[in-house]
């Protein structure tokens, strides 16, 4: 099954961007995909601190050391069936 995460980066949760994303998610669901919308302004997170943890070969490549509300969104398990 295909999965879609639509990320709304607008601070206005119900305005134009949100309406377009809702329609895209509805279309994806109608086509048989699993889909959801994530509002970035509802989450608590910090930007990259350039610690390079994500580049360590001893760790899973691309894994961020920062544990915040974005962690489950970036989790590879959410994107892979």
Tell me what you see in this structure.
It is built from 3 helices and 2 strands; from the N terminus they run E-H-E-H-H. With 81 residues, the protein is an alpha+beta fold. A two-stranded parallel sheet has the order 1-2. Strand 1 (3-8), helix 1 and strand 2 form a beta-alpha-beta unit. The chain is flat and about 40 Å long.
Summarize the structure.
The chain is α+β, with helices and mostly antiparallel strands and 81 residues long. Helices cover 28% and strands 15% of the residues. The C terminus is likely disordered.
What is this structure's SSE topology?
Elements: E1 3-8, H1 16-30, E2 34-39, H2 71-74, H3 76-79
Parallel strand pairs: 1-2
Order of helix and strand elements from N to C terminus: EHEHH
User: Hey, roughly how much beta strand do the residues contain?
Assistant: 5-15%
Largest sheet: 2 strands, parallel
The number of distinct helices, counting runs of at least 4 residues, comes to 3
Q: Catalogue the unreliable spans.
A: 76-81
Query: What order do the strands of the largest sheet run in, or round the barrel if closed?
Result: 1-2
Cα radius of gyration in angstroms: 15 Å
